[in-house]
C-alpha cells in the first residue's frame, strides 16, 4: 500500500488515510488496526472514573494513582491501596530496607549531608521544633 491509501479503523469504523494510523511491523500492511485517535483514547486511560482492582471502589480519574511507574495513565489501584501496599511491603522487609538506606548513606555521605544542610537552611524553625518534641515525655502521666 502506498501512503495515499486509506484504511478502515477497527474501532470507530471510519476510513482514514494511512498517515492516521501508527506503524506496527507485525501487521500485514505495517500499520496499527486502530487509528491514532482511537489508540490514544484506549491506551491513555482517558476516563472520568475507574474502579480500583484492590478495594473495588469507583474513584474519579484524578484519584487514581500514577505510582509504580505508570506515567500519566489511570492505574489499576487507587492511591490509598498503593500507599497501603508500600507500607505493608516496607514493614515486611523492614530490616532489609533499613540496611539499604544505611548503605546508601554511607556511600553518599557528602551528598546526604549537603541535602540536609539545604533543607535546614530552607526550614529554619524545624531544628528547634524537633528538639522541643524530643523534650516532651512519651507518657504524659509520667510528669
Which segments are poorly predicted (pLDDT under 50) over 5 or more consecutive residues? 62-72
Order of helices and strands, N to C?
Answer: EEHEEHHHH
Radius of gyration: 26 Å
N→C terminal distance: 86 Å
Number of domains: 3
Helix content: 40-55%
Number of strands: 4
Mean pLDDT equals 79
Largest sheet: 2 strands, antiparallel
Secondary structure class reads: mainly alpha
Total of helices: 5
Strand content: 5-15%
Spatial shape: elongated
Record the strand order, biggest sheet. Answer: 1-2
Description:
It is a single chain. The chain has 143 residues and is mainly α. It has three domains: 6-43, no CATH class; 49-91, no CATH class; 95-135, no CATH class. It has five helices and four strands, in the order E-E-H-E-E-H-H-H-H. A two-stranded antiparallel ribbon has the order 1-2. A two-stranded antiparallel sheet has the order 3-4. A hairpin with a 6-residue loop joins strand 1 (6-8) and strand 2 (15-17). It starts with 5 loop residues before the first strand and ends in an 8-residue tail after the last helix.
Give a brief outline of the structure:
By secondary structure, the chain is mainly alpha-helical.
Task: Record the SSE blueprint.
Blueprint: E1 6-8, E2 15-17, H1 36-43, E3 49-51, E4 58-60, H2 79-92, H3 94-107, H4 109-122, H5 126-135
Antiparallel strand pairs: 1-2, 3-4
Brief descriptors of the model:
two-stranded antiparallel ribbon, two-stranded antiparallel sheet, mainly alpha, elongated, 5 helices, 143 residues, 3 domains
